[in-house]
Amino acid sequence: MTRTHGIRPNLGQFLWLVTNTIFVGLAVGVERTVVPLLGTIYTMWVRC
Fold this sequence. Notes:
This protein is an all-alpha fold. Helices cover about 75% and strands about 0% of the residues. The chain has one helix spanning about 10-45. The chain is rod-shaped, with a radius of gyration of 20 Å.
C-alpha cells in the first residue's frame, strides 16, 4: 500500500474537508446568531 502526500494528489479529499469545514462554521455561526434572536422574539411574543 503506497501513500501519496501533498494537496495536489489528494485534491478531492482536501476540497471535501474544506467544504465540510465551511458548512460546520456556517452552522455554528447561524446557531450563535439566530437562536438567541428567536429566543428573544419568542419571549416577547409570550409576554403579550
